[in-house]
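hey so i finally got around to running the thing on that chain from the lab meeting. sorry it took forever, my laptop kept dying and i had to restart like 3 times. anyway pasting the input first so we r on the same page abt which one it is
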Amino acid sequence: GKIGSTPQLEEKNIVEQVTEMVNYVKRRAPEKVTFSIDTNGEKEITALINGPLFDWVVANILKNALDAMEGKGSININIKNETTQVITDITDTGKGISKQNIAKVFKPGFTTKKRGWGLGLSLAKRIMEQYHKGELFVKNSEAGKGTTFRIVLNK
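ok and heres what got predicted. didnt touch it at all, straight out
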């Protein structure tokens, strides 16, 4: 009965939410991929989110990072508690995104993969902007070095 209704936002611990998704993806990741989470010494950083939707966004970015690394590398997550925002940076050591593609990665149907519909990041961006009134963007990317996606949640 919830289909089509506006998702409810609840006060949740972002550190816990992200850690759970990292652990979920880590269990399915190749052994040569390392994961680290830096919360800048904080155990609890809260923001208003819809748990399942936020989890899906984080999982989608993590899975894309795994694909970009082709079996080896590292994924580092940094969660910062700012005055009015919670900022989560997800950085991988994958192949990076070319300058011309950075502008396209959030467009529906865009993909560099052999499989897939190219809908993950466009849906993730929509979930962050429309439902959470936050942001999702490519903070930086360098060919052959990796990519950082930034999730911004307003408190």
